[in-house]
Amino acid sequence: MKDSESPRSGILDCENGSASFYCNDFNFYIMNNFVKREGTYYPQDTFSLKTDNQFIHGLTHDGQSIAIFVGDTNTSSLTSVFELQTSAYLVQCSNRTDCNWGSFDSIEFCGGVLNNLFSYRNISVTYIPGGYTVKDDDYMLSDSIGTPYGNIEVDIGWYTAHNVNPKELTASQNTAYMRFIFEKPLSLEDIFKNIETARSLVKFMSYRDNVEFDSINLQKRYMLDTPDGTIEDFYNDAQVFIRNNFAPSQKRPVDSICFDDLGTHVFSLLHMLYEDKSHNPLHFLEFLPNSDEAAKWISSEHIREIATFIECETYQSSQKNDSKSKKLFDDSVRLKNLISKFKQTLYQDESENGALPENVHQLLERKLNRIAFPSRDSDFCLYEAYKDITYNILPYCKKILTANDTKEFRKYRNDETHGNYGLLNFNIGITGLYLVATGYCSILHRAGVDDATLKQLCTKHFLC
Q: How large is the average pLDDT for residues 245-251?
């Protein structure tokens, strides 16, 4: 995320001493304002930066407050020049008053990957004598979701921007935005957690790890007087800059899962991202390609990550009894009942014949609690529910998996896990991608997306 005003400079808040900084592309050069000719610095000559929840604060020479993430870096008793490579910093949007870094009411994400997550659309331009008119057009999805941070009002959309002068007309719809409005103000720490959740959403939809926004603004509420009365509005209080060591994806809307494809179901998907569950597949997306070029290959590491992802999704599906997951659900209930009967037999035996040695009892309990259907069977069971939908996901290899394919996939993954490394063949890689598509479809099905839309999404070949 590029800071258009970089390089920046200013002064920093210190516990003792005085320090200045010069910033260029996330590299901060922090300098002691006390200078002396001798090479020896005494304790009274050093400076210590004031830290607040892993941030240091200061003021730029333009009069804007700045907050720089330092993490656990030692910022005390520094002498001359200290170089800090930070992963994030924030700059106040105005210079009228001090910025209160304690809490914020809203986050607004603009442009970048969002522009590529809406389907292509036409801009309506009409000729009239003496010039042209551009039809004002927009699109917005809006809903409220429950999260660990309270209810969040979410707006997602775009609008038409245009500029007309006597010799030129420019119009654009690359104005996509996503806004999170919080029920109660959030701390800076929680703000960054919500930024990561927003990134996870667009990563999932674009099937890319290398995504970023053009800008991220932290906002605060204020009451605006209008002819119709006083209304609540928001102003940009600070801009967030996050270091990303990659070239942003240029994947097109025709190859991605778009917001208008999902409609209001996107809010169910976002709600699922906020769920703090041990088997939440949306928290295990490490297999996503880290570049557009990397989407052309698959590695052993990807196979391991895909296996974890699909394990989590089969577990989630087995908790819900519907047309797609009935067999998984029925098998899960059957196994739970059998395990319960085994435990009852154990308890009844101990009641009648006396307690077993503690280590034997615990061993039996552990064994019973670990009983599960083989992953290869669960993988294939979930795939079977979506095989007619995922058939077209790969344009270069249309395939119907067999039980032997998922068995081979799991054997390769288990061998890798236990250090028995082998060559990754084409069939295992293709099986892995079809299982990813199956997991995606299952997640979106749980979010409420119908089969017709899932088929349409698969014809977009979003895994490419």
A: 94
